[in-house]
Design a protein that fits this description.
Helix content is 20%, strand content 24%. It has 202 residues and is of the alpha+beta class. The protein folds into two domains: 95 residues, no CATH class; 92 residues, Protein of unknown function (DUF3299) (OB fold (Dihydrolipoamide Acetyltransferase, E2P), Beta Barrel). Strands 1-2-3-5-4 form a five-stranded mixed barrel. Strand 4 and strand 5 form a beta hairpin. The longest helix is centred in the N-terminal third of the chain and has 17 residues. The termini are far apart. The relative contact order is 0.17.
Length: 202
């Protein structure tokens, strides 16, 4: 096993602990995530109706516990050539790709902050991109699970003019839809009516 693959495992193990409940708004250089996990369906619906921005934790079902996978392994004692590392890596990829979504978000008008990962790197106008919760995802570090990756399609006249890893607000209609690309797996799609530079809300 190549050493960089084991490093990926260790990174993802740390990220999984973050998924279990820590946070903040998008952060330029850390794998930070918003902290309002555990909203009930009713609370989430009320927030959306009031026009409040989604937090990334809102995209994760409250009963999803990916960290249980690591309870079967002692990662600190797995060597580069240990076959258990290959097995864990394969299981993790499958878990990330099939991560469950929050069905109540389907068809909702939403507003979500995140980082831009264009699907076409040389585009002047970015019409389709992945929205991710932390800097470097899909390019410099492993991609998030599919319930932490949103496929964004801009409507006519709403294409984003910017660059890789720009921090933005995306507004539009959320759909439960799987999307697969070499850069990552998305569990959601937003038909975006507006993509604007990120500014913290007061």
């Amino acid at each position: 096993m190549h050493r960089h693959r084991l490093a990926i495992l260790l990174f993802v193990a740390e990220l999984t602990l973050l998924l279990a409940g820590c946070g903040g708004e998008p952060e330029q250089e850390t794998a930070g995530r918003p902290s309002d996990a555990g909203l009930t369906s009713e609370e989430l619906a009320a927030d959306i109706e009031l026009g409040r921005a989604l937090q990334w934790d809102d995209l994760i079902p409250a009963d999803w516990r990916p960290e249980t996978l690591f309870e079967q392994y002692d990662i600190d004692n797995i060597d580069d050539d240990d076959p258990r590392a290959d097995a864990l890596f394969d299981k993790l990829q499958e878990l990330w790709a099939k991560a469950p979504v929050v069905q109540e978000l389907d068809g909702r008008e939403v507003r979500l902050p995140g980082f831009v990962v264009p699907l076409t790197m040389d585009a002047v106008e970015i019409r389709e991109f992945l929205l991710v919760p932390y800097f470097g995802a899909c390019i410099h570090v492993p991609p998030p699970p599919s319930n932490q990756t949103v496929y964004v399609v801009t409507t006519d006249g709403a294409a984003y003019r910017g660059e890789l890893f720009d921090t933005v607000w995306v507004e539009g209609t959320m759909h439960i839809e799987r999307f697969s690309n070499e850069l990552g797996e998305a569990g959601y799609r937003i038909d975006a009516t507006n993509v604007s530079p990120y500014e913290e809300e007061g």
